[in-house]
Amino acid sequence: MSDLIIAAYPSPTAAFVAGEGLASLQQEAGVEPEDIVVVTRTAAGRVSLNQSIDLATGKPLGGGRWAALIGMLFLDDRKPSGSGRGLAEQLLAAGLDAGFLNEVSRSLTTGGAALGIHVRLLGVDRVRARLAELKGHPTVLHARLTAETEEALHDLQAQIPSSVLNQPDGLI
């Protein structure tokens, strides 16, 4: 089991500071780094991913697949229609709660940013406590991922083309 945490901020600066704070928390705890991503939305509505990088290899943590999946949560703000098509439908079918998906899609405002982290060993309480210590007062959304949901999300991640993961500017 793992957790998916989204912290929405009105400005990118606060989200980037929070991302650095969570990276520090991982180092302090001595746990394996989890993928941390800051998702921003420009005035034109373009979504951009700024993912955590492994300093030793220069590659995204988690291969960038969790970051890309977290970024995709913000791309489809439509409610699931029951057609089985579309991103929202696939995320719902994977086991994410419809209420969580709706809240996440609405949380990223134009000019704002959201910090996303997939947490396994660090623990939700420690992440929430660190976020509370930082400035910015984010809206924090949380989804508990069962083993089945996590496996279904891994299947969705496997469908993300490598070309998307290797975008130099992080735009999706």
Q: Which term fits the overall shape?
A: globular
Q: What's the end-to-end separation, in Å?
A: 28 Å
How confident is the prediction overall: mean pLDDT?
80
Can you list the strand order of the major beta sheet? 3-2-4-1-5
Number of structural domains: 1
Helix content: 40-55%
Strand content: 15-25%
| Number of contiguous helices | 7
Number of strands: 5
Computed over alpha carbons, the radius of gyration is 15 Å
- Main β-sheet: number of strands, strand sense, barrel status? 5 strands, antiparallel
SSE string: EHEEHHHEHEHH
Written description of the protein model:
The chain is α+β, with helices and mostly antiparallel strands. The chain has one domain. Helices cover 41% and strands 19% of the residues. The chain has 7 helices and 5 strands, in the order E-H-E-E-H-H-H-E-H-E-H-H. The chain has a 5-stranded antiparallel beta sheet, with helices on both faces. A hairpin with a 5-residue loop joins strand 2 (36-41) and strand 3 (47-51). Helix 1 (12-29) packs across helix 5 (124-133), helix 2 packs across helix 6 (147-158) and helix 3 (87-94) runs antiparallel to helix 6. The protein is globular. It starts with a strand and ends in a 7-residue tail after the last helix. Residues 168-172 have low confidence and may be disordered.
